[in-house]
UniProtKB/TrEMBL annotation:
Name recorded for this polypeptide: DNA ligase D polymerase domain-containing protein
One Pfam family in the UniProt entry: LigD_Prim-Pol
Domain DNA ligase D polymerase: 28-287
Native source species: Acrocarpospora corrugata
InterPro entries attached to this UniProt entry: LigD_pol_dom, MtLigD_Pol-like, NHEJ_LigD
Domain of life: Bacteria
The organism's taxonomic lineage, starting at the top: Bacteria, Bacillati, Actinomycetota, Actinomycetes, Streptosporangiales
Length: 288
């Protein structure tokens, strides 16, 4: 069934609204679109100007999925696109036409494609479509079992204090999966985010038994891996407020530092899309 709609003056055709994309929760495509439509006021500022990578699940989270960077041929002409070089592309491409989610119609368009996850880099493009220096530094905290997000919170506090000592603010969010991320506003166009992040991760690795800065799997059980490599210009991180492809429609939720300090069980920091909508209604956007 096709449903024509007008979103902020743009004509869209929504399809298969009754399809269940999260079978365990009975969460349908219509509910995914509704979530992204309602979360848009706080999510769009974290997507605007950033080349988009989506993770699409046409048959729901239990089915096949694919990452999509190149805007599909059927992308409406009003969706902003930029052509950027992608050296070393696994697809053998020299460049990719990335979409930019600057507005609600574009967000709804991608939600209708069953793009459950939205991923963006730590840099933006200029009005002319030129890649700009990073404006965010990110640390991705990944717990090695039996460690959980509880241990991630302990490491996040270590990072917060180390960053503050260097004069940096930091903002935590859940990944929507098992870990979390810290975002650090980065106004220094002439300073390398990757080098700084690596040095700080290695410093904490050397000082705290709970921390590892090395990706090697055998070194990670019971520890929290501080993934500093996400600061590579070629990497992306799940956007704040994005849904994740789990049995339930969990979302990447910005946190207050008090929640990180008080985390005693992994379940405390698991939020579904409806949970996140309620949080935003109560506290607004906790991300910079």
């Amino acid at each position: 069934m096709k449903v024509p709609v007008v979103v902020d003056g743009r004509q869209l055709v929504l399809t298969n609204l009754g399809k269940v994309l999260y079978p365990e929760a009975g969460f349908t495509k219509a509910e995914v679109i509704d979530y992204y439509s309602r979360i848009a006021p706080v999510m769009l500022p974290h997507l605007r100007g950033r080349p988009l990578t989506v993770k699409r699940y046409p048959n729901g989270v239990g089915g096949a999925f694919f990452f999509e960077k190149n805007a599909p041929r059927h992308t409406p002409a009003w969706v902003r696109r930029v052509t950027l070089p992608v050296p070393g592309s696994s697809m053998g491409r020299e460049s990719i036409d990335f979409a930019i989610v600057d507005d609600l119609p574009t967000l709804v368009y991608y939600a209708n494609l069953a793009a459950l996850e939205f991923h963006v880099p730590m840099w933006q493009v200029s009005a002319e479509g030129r890649a700009l220096p990073p404006d965010i530094l990110v640390f991705d905290l990944d717990p090695g079992p039996p460690a959980t997000i509880v241990e991630c919170c302990r490491v996040a506090l270590l990072l917060r204090d180390a960053l503050a000592a260097d004069g940096h603010d930091s903002y935590p969010k859940t990944s929507g999966n098992k870990g979390m991320q810290l975002h650090v506003p980065w106004p220094y166009q002439d300073r390398d985010t990757s080098a700084y992040a690596k040095a700080l991760a290695q410093r904490l690795d050397g000082a705290h038994e709970l921390v590892t800065s090395v990706m090697t799997k055998r070194l990670r059980p019971g520890k929290v891996f501080i993934d500093w490599s996400q600061n590579s210009p070629a990497k992306t991180t799940v956007a704040a407020y994005s849904l994740r492809a789990n049995p339930r429609p969990t979302a990447s939720a910005p946190l207050a530092w008090a929640e990180v300090e008080e985390c005693e069980s992994a379940g405390q920091l698991v939020f579904t899309g409806p949970d996140v909508l309620a949080r935003v209604e109560e506290v607004g956007d906790l991300f910079p």
